[in-house]
UniProtKB/TrEMBL annotation:
InterPro entries xrefs: AB_hydrolase_fold (IPR029058)
Gene3D superfamilies: alpha/beta hydrolase
Name by which UniProt lists this protein: Carboxylesterase
Superkingdom in the source lineage: Bacteria
Length: 116
């Protein structure tokens, strides 16, 4: 496996968002992840459909319209079908990693409304 470098992290971000990070604080954060101590990634198993259907607590499923990490229409449809108490929101013109830096006010509003 290739070593992590700031350029590899930036390349992944460009792939996912379609551009380089414009926010200098976010760029510094991304660069710092290249030198962060690594541990083995533990991937969770996907929950079974029957377990999701049994979930009776409210849930907010927040998706980014231009995410390359998820198949957004498929994920939204599955969430609506399997989580009876879910609110499913797709943020237009957003990518998976752009939400915290480019849409903070909208993210705050959605979270506050959900938690109210």
């Amino acid at each position: 496996m290739k070593p992590f470098t700031a350029e590899r992290v930036r390349a992944f971000h460009r792939w996912e968002t379609g551009r380089t990070p414009e926010n200098p604080v976010w760029r510094a954060f991304l660069d710092s992840t290249a030198t962060a101590r690594r541990s083995k990634v533990v991937a969770m198993r996907r929950p079974r459909a029957q377990h999701l259907r049994a979930c009776t607590v409210p849930a907010l499923v927040l998706l980014a319209e231009h995410s390359r990490v998820h198949d957004v229409p498929r994920t939204a449809a599955a969430a609506r079908r399997l989580l009876p108490e879910a609110s499913v929101v797709t943020l237009p013109d957003a990518s998976h990693h752009s939400i915290p830096t480019e849409r903070p006010a909208e993210l705050d509003r959605l979270l506050a409304e959900f938690l109210a």
